[in-house]
Amino acid sequence: MAYSKIKLPASASILILFGFILLSLQLMSSSTQESSELSEMHSWLLVINTLGSITLLILVVVNAYSLVRELKKKEAGSRLTTRMVSLFVLLALAPAAIVFYFSVQFLHQGIDSWFNVEIDRAMDDALELSQSSLAQRMNWHIKQTRQIAAQLEDKSDTLIALEIGSLWADSGALEIAAFSSQGRILASSSTNPSDILPHLPDEQIWLQLRQNKEYFAFDPGDNDEMLVRIILPIDRDQRRFLQVLYPIPVRVTDLADSIEFAFIRYQEMTFLRDSLKTSFSLILLLVLLLSLLAAIWVAFISIRNIVAPVKELVKGTQAVADGDYQQQLPVMSQDDLGFLVESFNQMTKRIARSRDETRAAGLEVENQRAYLETILANLTAGVISFDASFHIRTANQAAYRILHIPVSHFVSQTLSNLAGKHSELAEVLEAIQQLLEKADDIWEQRIVFLGPNGRQELLCRGTPLFLQDGSRMGAVVVFDDVTDLIQAQKNAAWGEVARRLAHEIKNPLTPIQLSAERLQHKLSKELPENSQDFLQRGTRTIVQQVEAMKRMVDDFSEYARPSKKQVEKINLIDLIQEILALYLHSGILFTTSFSSRGVIVEADPVSIRQVLHNLIKNAQEATAGPCRIDIKINKAVRNNAEYAELCIYDNGSGLHADQIETIFEPYVTSKAKGTGLGLAIVKKIVEEHGGVIWVDTSYNGGAGFVIQLPVFEFGNSE
């Protein structure tokens, strides 16, 4: 498992940036002090911090613009990032604004407190006191110098040179010197023996001396000390001058300088009072702006790093929603978000595994379903499955074929609904529905009904289906059309009867006929005339009945005997027209309707002739008045195979419902002299040719029969 964190260079660059910002702010704060060595760099520091603020503002704007684009594109995590950044900005801006407001108020009040009336008066008094102290010292030294000059008045240059040392010692001055008006030194005395020459006045002092006749001022000394320089004339004619340098104590000098500097500084600050407020407020605002912009920029970076796992989770969730269960997200940290990402990865693995298992199980189910559908589709028995409310779920092809109901009518229908749509099947469908609703166990029932193809007999078996909790989940019904099977059994039974009759009855008939003929031949001459007539009538009756019994036995033999048909390709339409030509003078009115010009079938023409003759003969015998027979040939499709459908309709008395069920069975007839084998033989011949025959129950104008034979080729339509 790979873990990725914020890279060290990125975090280090952020720390270095904050370090530079703090250092720059500290330097700019220090530069506001006059005594600071950084005061000369104040402008540069202000420009640097301003550029830093602009740079941070650009970074913040770029990040905000990028976030807005993500919001417009509705990228994952953009809304969460926006809410977190907005919350952070509000939380940072509110206290910073409060602190800034009160800081500015405190700053303005503090600056204003520097310049109240008491401080102004104190500064003036201090300056006046300093000036008064220095003036008093100056006056005292001038008085002392005048006394020294008075002692040297009217003395020669030599006496001055001799007395000047003692005068210096008594005065406490640093230096005493006498010089002429031309600047020639007459005498001097100093505390520093190394000073050979005294401190002579410069041109400025000489100029002032010539104007004012005397000079006194505070002058700087050699070691940054303050000196009182006093120059007075010794003589009234001002030919000689006396210069005395008095020292001022260092403490007094420092105090005077400090008071003067403070006063000047105070005057400057008073003049720059509003500028100071503006300057300090600007610096405070710059500090606030730098701090906020830096914090917001770092917030963008930090929040993006925090939201990054959430964005990956959103993308991963979208991928999972789209069906990509192989999605694995990188674990960026070992915190709660990292735990959430790990849980997501485990979840996707389990979902992928479950999907694969479900897909495999589904494939297995599909294979089993296809296997079952293949089996059900190839079963000859019809299979219908029902749900718990007895709605049809599935039905195989055999169910469609047996019940003759379209496929679309089965699904989601109940048998009662189908019975309403297919009245011809109402009896069987209602019977199965009742068995489904009442049966709690396996049931079996044989149901006989009159279907669209005549009498049908179904063998139905049903099984209710239950869940593990015992509740009913549906049922399955399996039914077979046993009509042909039962008919085959009946035919086999009748065939066996026919063979027995042929053996047991036909053999005695010939001796009976011969004996009757011999009796007539022997006794006809010996009996009276009346007895001869009676014998002749009796013998004739016996012979006729024996012939009738022989014909009946022959019919039975033919019905039981396997057909020996000679199959060939014949045109069914030409064969019908040949047969109809035989009935031109029979009084029967024929109408024909053929869907094509040629219908080629593979059949025995003799057998097909027998079928048509039997049907036409039955129609003629069943019609009391003029007989009219309609013959139609259409194209039909059954089980994806083409059939020639031959329909024969007459205008006779028709058939009753009880007759339709047994019309094709042997010895079933409504005629007084019929044997009941005609339609049975017809059905046998048709089935031997691979076809079917049934009574058209929808025809009410007489009797109607429909024959379907496998067709070899259909000709062009008429």
TrEMBL record:
Q: Which reaction is this enzyme known to catalyze?
A: ATP + protein L-histidine = ADP + protein N-phospho-L-histidine
Keyword Kinase recorded:
yes
Could you tell me the superkingdom of the organism this chain comes from? Answer: Bacteria
In this chain the Histidine kinase domain maps to: 500-713
Which segments constitute the HAMP domain? 304-356
Chief location category: membrane
Recall the GO molecular function terms of this protein's record.
ATP binding
- E.C. number(s) listed in UniProt: 2.7.13.3
What is this entry's stated membrane topology? Multi-pass membrane protein
Protein name (Swiss-Prot/TrEMBL): histidine kinase
Q: Which organism is it from?
A: Methylomonas rivi
